[in-house]
Design brief:
The structure holds two protein chains of two kinds. By secondary structure, chain A is an all-alpha fold. Chain A has helices at about 5-25, 30-40, 45-80, 90-105, 115-135, 145-165, 175-180, 190-215, 220-225, 230-250, 255-270, 275-295, 305-330. Chain A is globular and about 65 Å long. Chain B is built from eleven helices and twelve strands. Chain B has helices at about 1-10, 50-55, 80-85, 100-105, 120-135, 150-165, 180-195, 205-215, 230-235, 235-245, 260-265; strands spanning about 10-20, 25-35, 40-45, 65-70, 75, 85-90, 170, 200-205, 215-220, 225-230, 250-255, 255-260. The termini of chain B are far apart. Classes of the chains: A mainly alpha, B alpha/beta. Chain B: Part of the ABC transporter complex HmuTUV involved in hemin import. Responsible for energy coupling to the transport system.
Chain lengths: ~325, ~270
């Protein structure tokens, strides 16, 4: 597929799902009612309030989280030249969660201030994952060893999280939804602080896109074409990690969007150029919005956790991708 | 003075370049000068340091000792982008994302000439089209890298390096992955590039290819330059025996020098 039609298609899918998201729920709202709630809002009409306060806010959160995780995953996959990495498979999500829990337990942090320990946790996780992968692969470049390192890192930080929570379970009782990754009705509050991270991150990613594309040809080729590989790689990591962290701070560790969205992008329009980045952004938003619709309607009126829905679908997708990678390598 | 005339055309010089990992010297006090308009082949056995030498010239590795100068300025003082306007390189590893479209791949060669906003100018497009025509990959423009054979990809990557329009062209085993027809076509292209006034420096495996196409051959062994000069002066049975440890008989066909093992000829 060419980039142009691909972008049109994903934009249409995005608006379609946005519409579906606002109408679907425990109780179906007619499109006319949604339209009124948006453009002729009556604060005394309970159904209008539901559409705005419970659905539109969730829609914005789902769209934001999907978009930034997808871009983070695409950037990581491109600079590491490894189709299996993503914020979740590298352990970034788990690292951020662990450091947030430390921040709460040790320093009593809350709200937007938790972005900082989460960010440190994200960078720490990447460092640990690289270290572990280096020990496993002993210098050979092997896509699976980095994922193994990431899995070890995730396990390590998750155990640390569980340990700290076990020291004072009551204090973390209201965080259970966040710990598995869920969109709550008040998640738009931290997003009001954090959205600039996503907007500037994606903006810089668009600016750096050309250099990052060069890096996909290998370090030496990129350097002789005129890019500075170390600078580009460091800069891209400095974009990809905060992007993912800003999502984790809002909804907790929602996995696999950052893995699957880049794959869909690559399959449909390739990974090169700014159109692919735009496609991936919208594709990530579409995935999480769809997951949120599923979470709210599958067992309605009971709500599922978006993180659980994503983990179920994404886990299967991850398996398929790993098997495809192994097949390709065997061929 | 003859040396003065030669110096006027010299574009790249290496002065006493030494490079090593740990205690092992990979390159040992190498001094060379490259002039525009010549096609130089660097040959030697595996591990003799020829690829390392090319990477040192491209500024990918820093020498432990010595200096590399481009137009009398140290290579290390150039930014990567500025250096790429003077020097293009076809690296040995041919990795490229499977989803990348060929015309985008070739277009990567223009990066060094692009500004933040000025991309895909008429000049860029002219260079990309010309490079694709030269490497006979125009028909592949809309194909994805994953659909190409190894040889097709190698030709597209060569087109990318040509699109860079640099005065110095470094080629690291450029005939890898190519079948016979395209090996000769690529080497012919390299010679044509030198004929238009560029300095073309290629690491080659095949001595016959080197003798057939290069103006000058540098024979390396154990990190040192053993011989440097016209093909007929460098590819002697004595030098081959000294470097490769095999007794050969040299047969010439026009420009080509073919070394055959003595035992097989009798």
């Amino acid at each position: 597929m060419k980039a142009g039609p691909g972008l049109v298609l994903v934009t249409m899918a995005f608006f379609l799902l946005c519409g579906l998201h606002l109408t679907a729920g425990a109780r179906f709202s007619a499109p006319a009612l949604v339209f009124d709630a948006l453009f002729d809002h009556d604060p005394r009409n309970y159904q209008h309030v539901v559409v705005i306060k419970q659905r539109l806010t969730r829609l914005v959160v789902a769209g934001y989280v999907g978009a930034v995780l997808a871009v983070s995953g695409l950037l990581l996959q491109k600079i590491l030249r490894n189709d299996l990495v993503s914020p979740s498979t590298l352990g970034i999500n788990s690292g951020a969660v662990a450091f947030v829990i430390f921040g709460i337990y040790l320093f009593g942090l809350n709200g937007a201030a938790l972005f900082w320990p989460a960010l440190i946790g994200g960078f720490a996780a990447v460092a640990v994952a690289f270290l572990a992968a280096g020990l496993v692969s002993r210098g050979r470049r092997d896509p699976l060893s980095l994922i193994l390192g990431g899995a070890m890192t995730a396990t390590l930080f998750s155990s640390a999280t569980t340990f700290v929570i076990s020291l004072d379970p009551d204090r973390f009782g209201n965080l259970m939804g966040w710990l598995v990754g869920d969109i709550g009705n008040f998640d738009y509050l931290p997003l009001a602080w954090l959205w600039p991270v996503g907007v500037t991150g994606i903006g810089f990613a668009l600016v750096l896109c050309r250099q990052i594309d060069l890096l996909t040809l290998g370090t030496e080729q990129a350097a002789t074409l005129g890019a500075d590989p170390r600078l580009v790689r460091a800069g891209t990591l400095a974009l990809a990690i905060p992007l993912a962290i800003s999502a984790v701070c809002v909804v907790g560790p929602i996995g696999f969007v950052g893995l699957v969205a880049p794959h869909i992008t690559r399959l449909l329009i390739g990974e090169t150029g700014r159109p692919a980045l735009g496609f991936c952004t919208l594709c990530g938003a579409v995935i999480v919005i769809a997951a949120d619709i599923a979470a709210r309607t599958l067992l309605a009126p009971q709500l599922l956790q978006v993180g659980t829905v994503m983990a179920l679908c994404g886990g299967i997708a991850f398996l398929v991708i790993v098997v495809a990678t192994l097949r390709r390598r065997a061929a | 003075m003859k040396a003065g005339v030669e110096n006027a055309q010299t574009v790249l010089t290496l002065e006493d370049v030494t490079f090593g990992y740990g205690g092992n010297a990979v390159l040992d006090t190498i001094s060379l000068a490259f002039r525009s308009g010549e096609f130089v082949a660097i040959v030697g056995p595996n591990g003799c340091g020829k690829s390392t030498l090319l990477k040192i010239m491209a500024g990918l590795l820093s020498p432990g000792h010595g200096a590399i100068k481009l137009d009398d300025r140290p290579v290390s003082s150039f930014s990567r982008k500025n250096l790429a306007r003077h020097m293009a390189m076809l690296a040995q590893s041919n990795e490229a994302p499977a989803g990348m479209v060929v015309c985008d791949l070739v277009g990567m060669g223009r990066f060094a000439h692009e500004g933040w906003l000025s991309r895909g100018t008429a000049r860029d497009i002219a260079h990309i089209d010309a490079a694709m025509q030269t490497m006979a990959v125009t028909d592949l423009a809309d194909r994805r890298v994953g659909e190409l054979s190894g040889g097709q990809l190698q030709r597209c990557r060569m087109a990318m390096a040509l699109a860079q329009d640099a005065n110095i062209l470094l080629l690291d085993e450029p005939t890898n992955h190519l079948d016979l027809k395209h090996q000769y076509a690529l080497l012919e292209t390299a010679r044509m590039q030198a004929a238009t006034g560029r300095a073309v420096i290629a690491v080659l495996h095949d001595l016959t290819h080197a003798s057939l196409f290069a103006d000058r051959i540098i024979l390396m062994d154990g990190g040192k330059v053993l011989a440097d000069g016209a093909p007929a002066d460098v590819l002697t049975p004595e030098n081959i025996a000294a470097v490769y440890g095999i007794v050969t008989v040299a047969k010439t066909f026009g420009r080509a020098i073919v070394h055959l093992p003595e035992s097989a000829v009798e």
